[in-house]
Amino acid sequence: MKVLIVGATGNVGLRLVPALLTHGHNVVAYVRSAKKLELLLPEPVYRQLSVVEGDATDSAAIKRAILDFQCEAVVNSAGVAAVAPWGKSTLPEIFRAVLEGVQEAGAEQKSPLRVWFLGGLGVLQFPGAMSMISDYVPIFLAHRQNIQLLRSLSPNTVDWSMICPSTMTPESSDFSVPTKSSHARLTAGAGTPPLWQDSWLKHIPLVGKPIVAAMNANRYDTTLEQCADFIAADLETRDSQWIGAPVGIIDASK
Ligand SMILES: NC(=O)c1ccc[n+]([C@@H]2O[C@H](COP(=O)([O-])OP(=O)(O)OC[C@H]3O[C@@H](n4cnc5c(N)ncnc54)[C@H](OP(=O)(O)O)[C@@H]3O)[C@@H](O)[C@H]2O)c1
Question: What are the residue boundaries of the NAD(P)-binding domain, all occurrences included (predicted)?
Answer without folding.
Answer: 7-172
